[in-house]
Specification:
The complex is a heterodimer of chains A (about 210) and B (about 280). Chain A is an alpha+beta fold. Chain A is built from 6 helices and 5 strands; from the N terminus they run ααααβββββαα. In chain A, a hairpin with a 6-residue loop joins strand 2 and strand 3. By secondary structure, chain B is an all-alpha fold. Classes of the chains: A alpha+beta (about 210), B mainly alpha (about 280).
């Protein structure tokens, strides 16, 4: 009897150990991947923050700043994704041509808004405090110090798509920029008969005004 | 009592403004055959939107014509250090109410911070002008009655845009009333001088706060397609973030005789902390 049991249990035990080892490796590699994602996001944001500070504190005019900011945005921000998010449920209602126009205008208006927000600041410092994971991405939390202002908490939401990190949202003192923009557009559309073309006209005015 | 008489003078004016706004009516619900629109209407939770928009328009006109220019003048005339000291001085008056709210929120570490801030800033900080307490390890935090109610589990309710006070909700409105009642500085003194000093403090406080957000508010409303909706969204998100920060902050109070180093604030339960 006991001889029977021992001849059966040896291979089973080995199989179990092999399975256990495989599970442990899968979990730890997932954890390792998550860690490496967080590291990648932190490194990516550190670089972007350095570039931003260089532009903001550099002594150049508005148009030069706009060009430099455009480079940073193109390299590191998922503008198309943010644009689609901001149109929300109206994206599906828009025609292909309207969608294309919207994305183009969104790019222009975003650059204008960012250049405007950055404004005449100089002597700005951004220091990265910590990084943690969330459902929709990795949050890199930083503190922005503007002269003559209290320090502001700014969180950068980074998504890693095929190994490439991109910023998909900026959360300033608890307020998400893309969510606020979506609420703005959606309120505008509700008051304008859900007409995407009315939104496009308004965006054209903003981009050119 | 001076507190009541001040309140009873302001209430009729507020009531009149609200009545005028209320005549504009309630928002119309989207048709039931558009489930996305209905879901969004529910999520926005702004059933008296037309009224709110009227009040916002009145407030905005008043702000553009009178209040913002005053704030810009205030900022131009007084140097930064004077404005900072004024801000500290005015903020110091808020510490007793803040401490009461911290206690009601069962945040002993925060209550201790508020109390020590009041004591050290009033004495060493010469009447609250200099903020020495932060350097001593008692930083400031947010705590008002609206947050207390939120931490007690009171839901926020629909969006209400109040005259003068701006974005609010039923819970926050009750919170404002509670803070007013709990503030000992509103009950001190009964004669005309104390009343006028009280009005003066309120006025300069409002000017001080307005002057601190001039540029940011300009940018937000200038870049928005619908400034009313943008402010509604920003206000709610910011409020929610404040409440969550307060809820998650469970710094334990370490007795002075405990030799170990003070640990970092933790989210999970720890000695002397309470979770809501």
């Amino acid at each position: 009897m006991s001889a029977d049991r021992s001849t059966h249990s040896q291979p089973t035990r080995r199989h179990l150990m092999g399975l256990g080892a495989a599970i442990v490796m899968a979990i730890s590699s997932r954890a390792a991947r998550a860690d490496s994602d967080a590291d990648r996001a932190t490194a990516f944001m550190t670089q972007m923050v350095t570039d931003l500070i260089a532009v903001v504190n550099g002594a150049s005019g508005t148009s030069d700043r706009a060009v430099a900011l455009q480079k940073i945005i193109d390299k590191g921000v998922d503008v198309n994704g943010i644009a689609r998010f901001c149109l929300g449920r109206f994206w599906r209602q828009a025609s292909a041509d309207e969608q294309k126009q919207y994305i183009e205008l969104f790019h222009k208006v975003l650059l204008k808004n960012i250049t405007g927000k950055v404004g005449d600041y100089s002597g700005v410092d951004i220091s990265i405090q910590k990084t943690f994971s969330r459902d929709d991405g990795i949050v890199v939390s930083s503190t922005v110090l503007r002269p003559n202002n209290a320090p502001a908490k700014v969180d950068w939401l980074v998504a890693i798509d095929n190994g490439k990190p991109l910023v998909i949202d900026v959360i300033a003192e608890g307020t998400s920029l893309r969510l606020t923009q979506r609420n703005d557009y959606s309120a505008f559309l509700t008051r304008n008969n859900n007409s995407v073309s009315a939104l496009l006209d308004a965006l054209k005015q903003q981009a050119n005004g | 009592m001076s507190g009541f008489s001040r309140l009873s003078r302001v209430l009729p004016a507020l009531g009149l403004l609200l009545a005028v706004g209320a005549l504009s009516g309630c928002a119309s619900q989207p048709p039931a055959d558009d489930p996305d629109a209905v879901a969004e209407y529910r999520e926005t939770n702004d059933p008296i939107e037309p009224t709110n928009r009227v009040v916002y328009a009145i407030n905005d006109a008043f702000d553009k014509a009178i209040f913002r220019p005053l704030a810009v003048g205030y900022r131009a005339v007084l140097p930064q250090t004077v404005r900072d000291h004024t801000h500290n001085f005015l903020g110091n008056f808020g510490m007793p109410v803040q401490m009461v709210n911290d206690i009601l929120q069962t945040k002993p570490r925060h209550a201790g911070d508020s109390m020590m801030r009041f004591v050290t800033n009033t004495t060493l900080g010469i009447g609250g002008i200099f903020d020495v307490a932060t350097d001593f390890g008692w930083p400031n935090h947010d705590a008002d009655a609206g947050m207390t109610l939120a931490l007690w589990g009171v839901p926020t309710g629909p969006y209400v845009y109040l005259p003068l006070f701006g974005p609010s909700s039923p819970r926050e409105g009750v919170g404002l009333g509670m803070d007013y009642m709990m503030d000992p500085f509103n009950w001190i003194g009964v004669d005309a001088t104390d009343r006028d000093l009280g009005y003066g403090k309120t006025g300069v406080s409002a000017l001080d706060e307005r002057s601190r957000v001039i540029d940011d508010l300009d940018k937000v409303t200038g870049q928005a397609l619908d400034p009313y909706a943008t402010i509604r969204s920003l206000y709610r998100q910011h409020r929610q973030s404040q409440i969550e920060d307060a809820r998650d902050d469970s710094k334990p109070t370490i007795p002075a005789w405990f030799p170990a180093a003070i640990p970092a604030p933790s989210k999970s339960g720890s000695v002397g902390s309470t979770q809501k």
